[in-house]
Amino acid sequence: MKKNKIVIFALIVILILIALSVSQNISNIREKNMTRQMLVNQVYSYLLQISTNLDGLFSNVEKNITSGEEIKSSLESIAFTFVKLGTLTEYNRYTIFKNLYSPSILGFDYIGGTLGIGGSITNGINIDGIMKDGIISENEIRYLRVLRDDIKTMLDKMVSVDDPPRVNQNLTIDQLSQVFKDFFSTWSDFNSNNCPIRMLQS
Predict the structure, then answer these.
(1) Burial of 36 (0-12, 13-18, 19+ CB in 10 A)
(2) Is residue 137 part of a domain?
(3) Pick from 37, 76, 105, 201: CA 20 to 30 A from residue 141's CA?
(4) Residue-wise pLDDT tens digits, 10-38
(5) Is residue 186 in some structural domain?
(6) Does pTM surpass 0.70?
(7) How many structural domains does the chain have?
(8) Range of the domain at 143
(9) Does the residue 9 lie in any domain?
């Protein structure tokens, strides 16, 4: 009788531990799902900011305004958003979503850098920032147009089919990674002549 009570007590303890474990796993899954949704929303928000600001920039370019404080301010805003996007994705890749795609070089922060006043040497090729000379050239306009079109393509891939233009809340990390892969297949392939960044080589 005493042995039966011990067995029953042990079974109860085991069931309680299993229940707690299951509850914790469910909580972890929910928390990770919420983090995924927040990441998708933030990525979409940053891309939308970039797209909107590029549209505003082109409204000035179409009026032959290619220099001045307004152009400089627009490019700085776009560049800063690219840096924030790069920081966001890299942080999440290192801390939570290890399978989130990231290019080895020429990431979002690098693209942001191409919009400023500086320059860099990549694979032995000089790349000048768009505002290095204080004015957007015809070649740089073509570069920005490709950038704008490719950002819009990324946004299109993230939009909910059932509720456009809202972001797809069910977008998985693998699907988001594919959006990044498609974009960086040209943007981070500096050895290819199709890499848009090569338009800025001096």
Answers:
(1) buried
(2) yes
(3) 105
(4) 556 565 556 545 455 554 556 778 999 99
(5) yes
(6) yes
(7) 1
(8) 32-200
(9) no
